[in-house]
Amino acid sequence: MSNDSTNEESAEAETAEASDFLRDQIRADLAAGTYGGRVKTRFPPEPNGYLHIGHAMSICLNFGLAQEFGGECNLRFDDTNPEAESEEFVRAIVEDVEWLGFESSDTIYYASDYFDQMYSWAEDLINKGLAYVDDLDSETMSEMRGGFTTPGQNSPFRERSIEENLDLFRRMKAGEFADGERVLRAKIDMNHENMQMRDPVMYRIRNTPHHRTGDTWAIYPNYDWAHGQEDAIEGVTHSICTLEFDNNRELYDWYQNNIDLPFEKPNQYEFARLNLTHIVTSKRKLAQLVADGVVNGWDDAAMPTIRGVRRRGYPASAIRAFCSHIGVAKTNSVREIELLESFVRDELNATALRRSGVLRPLKVVIDNYPEGQVEMLTAANHPNDESLGVRDVPFTREIYIEREDFEEDPPPKYYRLTVGREVRLRYGYFITATDVVKDAEGNVVEVRATYDPETSGGQAPDGRKVKSTIHWVSASEAVDATVVLYDRLFTDEHPGSGDTDPLDSLNADAKEVLEGAKLEPSMAKIAAGEVVQFERLGYFAHDLDQPMLFHRTVGLRDEWARLQKRKK
Ligand code: ATP
Ligand code: MG
After folding, report:
1. Which one, of 142, 338, 116, 98, lies nearest residue 216 by Cα?
2. What is the CATH number of domain 114-221?
3. Which terminus of the chain, N or C, has less C-beta within 10 A?
4. Cα 283 to ligand 2 centre (Å)
5. 3-111+226-326 architecture in CATH?
6. From CA 459, how far away is CA 468, in angstroms rounded?
7. Which helix (H) or strand (E) holds 233?
8. Please, what is the angle between helix 316-326 and helix 337-351, to 10°?
C-alpha cells in the first residue's frame, strides 16, 4: 500500500508542476517534436454499462493531461461488441463525463464510424500476406495457441493464398457464414514468446445488429485490432490504458507498423487502475447488484458509479481533486475509501450551507415559553464564509431535539440534556430539562423544560457556562423528510480478495432509512442535488428526483486522519 501524504500537502503539490512518468513522456515528446507539438489523448469506454469511480480516474487523467498540455482529449465509444452495448449507456456516459467537468471537442467519436477504414486496412494486411482466414473452431484454435512454456502450432489454413483469403473475408463481411464459422487472424508467429502475438484474431463473425450501424456488418473487429487503429485514425498521440494491457502493446505496435497511418504513430502507456477499499469497480459485479435488486439501479446513492456518488452528493470537483492527488502509478495498489471521502468532506466543509435537521426526533416542551409565539432567530449560513449570509430560524414553545441528546440516566462524561441540567440550543437560548413524559413501556416520549429569556444570544448575562450545545428544530415550523444513512457497501476491506466472491461480503445494513426526520423550514427551498451540512450530523444531499429525500454524503469526522493515526 502506498504511503499517503495529507490533503494539505497535495494542495501544495498541485501548485507546483506535476511530474510523473506520463507527464515526463509528454514533455519529452513535445521537446523532441515527435508529434509536431500535438498532444491528443482519449477516453475510450465501451458503452456496455455505467461509469464507475475507477473510470473517473481515467477521465480525469486523459482530459486533464490534454488540458494541461494544450491538447485535446476525445471521448470515444469503443462500440465493437454489439451484443452488450446500447444507446442508453452512450447517453449516460456522455452525461457523466460532462458532469465530472470535462467536455470533449464538439464531436463524440465512435469506433463503429471506422468500421470501413478498419476493414480496408484488414484487406491491406491480407494483400501483404499478413492476415488469413481461419476455419478452425475456437476451441481448437485456443488449444493450438500453446502456452507460456509450449509452442503454438500453425493452423492448417495458415498458408491460404491471398486470393482465397480475400474471397473468404469478403464473404464473411457479406454475411454468408454463421457466427463463429471463420475468423480473420493476423499472421505473426505461433511461437512468439508473447502469447498476444500468436496469430491473434482480428475479426469474428457476429450476425447481430449494432446499435449504430444496424445490419451493415456481419463481422466485428476484436479489441486489439480495433483499439490501436481507432487511436491512429483520430491522431491520438498518447494512448493511456490500464496495466493489464501491458502485453497487448507489442500487438498494438505491430498492427500500426503494418498499415498506412494517417498521422504519426501513437504510443500506448499503461498505468495502475484505481482500486478502492470496501467497493468494487467491475461493471460486471455492479450490474449484478442492480440485477439482484440489492440497489435501486445504477444510480442508487449507495453505488460507486459516477451517477451513484453524484446522487450521494459527492462534488465533481472533489473527485477531480482526489484523482489529481493520487496521481498515476506504475504498480497496482488499493486506496482507502476514507481518503476519497476526506476530499469530499473538505470540499463540502468549505461550500455547504449549514442547516439544522433532527434525524431521530424527541419532543421538548418549554413550559415557560408563550404558546403560539414564533420568534425568528438569526443563524449564519456558514461559520467562516460571511458572503453566504444568514437565514431565519423559527423558535417556538415545542421543539425537537435528537433522541440521543437526552439521557434519563446519563453515563459519566455525558454533558448533553438530562433532567436538572442546562444546555445551550444552537443559535438560541439556554434550556433546562425539568421532567419527562413516558409511554406505557416506559420510553421517554417527551421532555419538559424551561428556558432562560436572558440567554437569547446564546450567552448568559451572569457569565454562567453550559457544557454542551445541541441542535434542534421548531416542532410546528419544521418540514418532514426522509433521510438515508449509508455504511460501507461491502464489509470486507478488499471485497473479492483471495478466491471469494465480492458479493459474499455485501453489507446487508449498508442503508438505514429514517422516515421521520424533522428539518428547519428553510430546507423546503433547497434545490435538488444541493448538499448541506446538518450541524453535528454530517453532509446531506437532497435527492435529484424525490423532494425531501436526503442522502448522507459523508459524516463530519475525518476517518482518514483517524486511520493515518492508527497506522503510526
Ligand atoms: P470494467 O472492468 O469495469 O468492465 P473496463 O475497463 O472494461 O471496466 P471500459 O469501458 O473499457 O471498461 O473502460 C474505459 C476506460 O476506463 C479504459 O481506458 C480503462 O482503462 C479505464 N478504466 C476502467 N476501470 C478503471 C479503473 N478502475 N481505474 C482506472 N481506469 C479505469
Ligand atoms: Mg475495457
Report:
1. 116
2. 3.90.800.10
3. C
4. 10
5. 3-Layer(aba) Sandwich (3.40)
6. 12
7. helix 223-234
8. 130
Task: Work out the burial of residue 48: count CB atoms within 10 Å of its CB; fewer than 13 is exposed, 13-18 middle, 19 or more buried.
Answer: middle
CA of 274 to the centre of ligand 1 (A): 9
Phi and psi at residue 85, to the nearest 5°:
-105, 155
Name beta bridge partners: 241: 270
Global pTM reads 0.93
Residue 287 CA to residue 304 CA, distance in Å, equals 12
Chain position carrying cell 452488450: 84
Q: Give 182-231 as a 3 state SS string.
A: CEEEECCCCCCCCHHHCCCEEEEECCCCECCCECCCCEEECHHHHHHHHH
Relative to the CA of 48, which ligand 1 atom is closest?
10
pLDDT in tens, 413-426: 999 999 999 999 99
pLDDT surpasses 70 at 5: no
Gap from CA of 54 to ligand 1 centroid (Å): 7
Backbone angles phi, psi at 75, to 5 degrees: -90, 115
> Which residue has the least CA distance to atom 2 on ligand 1?
282
Residue 10 pLDDT > 70: no
Pick the atom of ligand 1 nearest to 51's CA: 10
Mean pLDDT within 491-495 = 94
Ligand nearest to the backbone CA of 223: 2
Q: What average pLDDT does this structure show over 557-564?
A: 88
CA dihedral 60, 75, 78, 174 (to 10 degrees): -170
Q: Does the Cβ of 90 fall within 6 Å of ligand 1? A: no
> What per-residue confidence (pLDDT) applies to 251?
98
For residue 383, which of 348, 341, 339, 353 has the smallest C-alpha distance? 353
CB distance 58 to ligand 1 below 6 Å: yes
- Counting ligands in written order, which one lies closest to the CA of residue 288? 1
Q: Is 273 in the pocket of ligand 1 (CB under 6 A)?
A: yes
In this predicted structure, the answer to whether residue 12 has a pLDDT above a threshold of 60 is no
Instruction: Please list the residues that pair with 450 across neighbouring strands.
Output: 432
Per-residue HEC secondary structure of 70-139 comes to CCEEEEEECCCCCCCCCHHHHHHHHHHHHHCCCCCCCCCEEHHHHHHHHHHHHHHHHHCCCEEEECCCHH
Enumerate the active-site residues: 46, 273, 283
The alpha carbon of 45 and the centre of ligand 2 are apart by a number of angstroms equal to: 7
What are the residue ranges spanned by the domains of the chain? Answer: 3-111+226-326, 114-221, 355-478
Torsion (CA) 39, 43, 44, 48 in degrees, nearest 10: -170
CB of 82 closer than 6 angstroms to any ligand 1 atom: no
What distance lies between CA 109 and its chain's CA centroid? 22
Ligand 1 mutation target, pool 55, 89, 273, 335, most atoms within 8 A of CB: 55
Using alpha carbons, select from 548, 50, 91, 46 the residue that is nearest to residue 309.
50
The mean predicted confidence, pLDDT, of the chain is: 95
Q: 167 has which bridge partners?
A: none
Query: Could you give phi then psi for residue 419, rounded to 5 degrees?
Result: -60, 130
Does 46 contact ligand 1 (Cβ within 6 A)? yes
For the CA of 286, the closest atom of ligand 1 is 3
Which residue's CA is minimally distant from atom 6 of ligand 1? 45
Cβ-contact 491, 505 below 8 angstroms: yes
Kindly indicate the confidence band of residue 104, based on its pLDDT and cuts at 50, 70 and 90: low
